[in-house]
Amino acid sequence: MLQGHSSVFQALLGTFFTWGMTAAGAALVFVFSSGQRRILDGSLGFAAGVMLAASYWSLLAPAVEMATSSGGFGAFAFFPVAVGFTLGAAFVYLADLLMPYLGAAEDPQTALALNFGATLMKKKSDPEGPALLFPESELSIRIDKSENGEAYQRKKAAATGLPEGPAVPVPSRGNLAQPSGSSWRRIALLILAITIHNVPEGLAVGVGFGAIEKTASATFESARNLAIGIGIQNFPEGLAVSLPLRGAGFSTWRAFWYGQLSGMVEPLAGVFGAFAVVLAEPILPYALAFAAGAMVYVVMDDIIPEAQIR
């Protein structure tokens, strides 16, 4: 993030930073054991506070100021901010509802890794057999707090409303099979799920940099602080994915790869957000409030509960 460059280039640098923080967090899988989870709790709690503050000072405050100074809304200057904020929160909420249908009940990176890992294990043990798939129940990895990071598989009810099953050790092979074409379709859907899941963060950084100098409160420093706050949140997010995968038996490098995967889509979303507000300035109050709504929803619904469940 270098001052004096174009908004789009700044957004690209900012989102590369957030991606790098995701990768840095995932890289800790080379150092920590899967039982060391307190680091995540503290980091997530700190990141939640930083992101809430940045959501207001870097996104909501400029949106309110711009809507007021434009004069087009008069006494209803709050309207574009309220609409954008509501749409941002609704976008993330609907994305969460969509996750199970894309094959990712919890972390889409973890679900994608499990799909690839199961397919590879099936091919090694039975090259001509069909690839593994999990069509009737979602599989997710959790860390057992009383055992030293031992990985378990928990069946989660799918859209059909099946009851949750007991926790059992992860088997190396499953007893459900589907054609390999369906497996690759599922993997493609999981990649789409990862993209949807991480677009709001990149979009917020892009909109923040795109709004620089549009109002007095939309400054380079506020946009930079927003990117730093999201980067701090991404650091434990990468580790939260890579550690369970390592405990599930994945190699360290493969666990690292899936841990950093979520950050890869953020530069694309950031550049899109910056382009949108630069080319269509009238939508800026809505865009800033949209990004703020998405960020606040992520903090309240995802980050804070995640920091307290362990």
Briefly summarize what is shown.
Keywords: Cell membrane, Membrane, Transmembrane, Transmembrane helix, Zinc. This protein is mainly α and 310 residues long.
User: Within the largest sheet, what's the order of strands?
Assistant: 1-2-3
> What's the end-to-end separation, in Å?
35 Å
Q: What does the average pLDDT come to?
A: 70
Helix content: 55-70%
Order of helices and strands: HHHHEEEHHHHH
Helix/strand class? mainly alpha
Total domain units: 2
Low-confidence stretches: 126-180
Could you walk me through the main structural features you see in this protein, from its secondary elements to its overall organization?
There is one protein chain. The chain is mainly alpha-helical and about 300 residues long. The chain has two domains: about 220 residues, no CATH class; about 70 residues, no CATH class. About 65% of the residues lie in helices and about 5% in strands. It contains nine helices and three strands; from the N terminus they run ααααβββααααα. It has a three-stranded antiparallel beta sheet with strand order 1-2-3. A hairpin with a 7-residue loop joins strand 1 and strand 2. The radius of gyration is 21 Å and the shape is elongated. The two termini are about 35 Å apart. It is found in: Cell membrane. This is Zinc transporter ZIP11. Keywords: Cell membrane, Membrane, Transmembrane, Transmembrane helix, Zinc. InterPro entries: ZIP.
